[in-house]
Amino acid sequence: MKLSIAQMLLPGLMLLSPLSHAVVAGGIVSLSHQWPSGEAYRKMTFYQQIGNDGGVKAHYFWANQFHFKGGDGGYIGLQNRGNGVHAFNYSIWKAKGWKEGNCRHFSHEGSGVQCDIEYPWRVGHVYKLQVVKEGNLVKGLVNDQMTGQTKVIGIIELPETFGDLNSSSGFVEEYSQGNGQFSSCSAIEAQSSTFFNPAAGDGVRAKQSIKTYGNCDDNFVVQAACNKNACINSINNLGTVASLEVKRVHVVHNTDLGAQVITNSLSDTHEVVVRLGKSSWAPNIHFPSPAQHKWKSIFVDHRASNESLLHVNGSVLSVNKGQQLSYISDGKVWKAVEPQ
């Protein structure tokens, strides 16, 4: 991917105030398409259904990526831009210009043309998204399969050297950044979606495979699977509770947990969990300096019968059985993160 979706779709996003949270989830799900070898097409058709859009705090892009023989590529897909705003997005790198649509040039980490429509697409509806090449013009269209309504997102002009469409893929990305960024992967908003097998030309169907990847590739956060007709995926909001795959800080039973032990655990990850239990109880837990661990998180899961004392931000807090506490460093203090 040449350009992050956040940079391409929302060029002002990177100008927000400094980050107040820890994780840019980024790409989470990736789909591969297998077309007949050596073929090229003037039309590709993608089918998508969003089961859960993530809500008003989320920024999801459900994208279909396509490529031209002898040329570059682009995206077409559905987007949740947060605060209840839905959109269709259509972009091509190295495009010369456009003939129709709400379009503009982009020039960061590559260049090309982006077209989009803010439109209240509906959760549960199946949308057919097409890119159709006629000469050096490529039309991006979307059709609501439930209502029959069709919209042209844009018509983009390509260099004459671009051939027909010859490959494609797909992905799901959560691109919240700046003050909208999440404290951890366990706090990103839930989504679910289906990518039906794409078609090309006069009905040739591609096979699909799917995988999870990226900063939040955690089996408790994201799941994905395919059958012969479609691929499904879901992302779960764990309510800030660290999953069982989050790196666990080693606790020596009946021994104070020192700040250096937590520091060592945080050296190669953005989040760790301190789990206290019957054979892993620490009477005192000392948090390291927040300055050393800016935008990193510590989750305390107290399951031991005895009370523990949490030393954080110059204060001492009593923690008892059943309590779960999440903290994130802003570089100055460890901030408590409220459960969702």
Note down, in words, how this protein is organized.
The protein has 2 helices and 25 strands. The strands form 4 sheets. Strands 2, 6, 9, 10, 11, 13, 14, 16 and 17 form a 9-stranded antiparallel β-sheet that branches. It has helices spanning 5-9, 259-266, and strands spanning 26-34, 43-52, 60-68, 73-80, 86-93, 97-101, 103-106, 112-118, 126-134, 137-144, 150-157, 165-174, 191-200, 204-205, 207-212, 222-226, 230-235, 247-248, 271-276, 284-286, 297-302, 308-312, 315-319, 324-329, 334-336. It is mainly β and 340 residues long. Residues 1-20 have low confidence and may be disordered.
Poorly predicted sequence stretches spanning 5 or more consecutive residues: 1-20
- Beta-strand fraction estimate: over 45%
Indicate the structural class: mainly beta
Number of strands: 25
Q: Sheet with the most strands?
A: 9 strands, antiparallel
* Topology as a string of helices (H) and strands (E): HEEEEEEEEEEEEEEEEEEHEEEEEEE
Give Rg in angstroms: 23 Å
Calculate the terminal CA-CA distance, rounded to whole Å.
32 Å
- The global form is elongated
Number of helices: 2
Mean pLDDT: 92
Helix content: under 10%
Question: TL;DR of this structure?
Answer:
The protein is mainly β and 340 residues long. 4% of the residues lie in helices and 47% in strands. The longest helix has 8 residues.
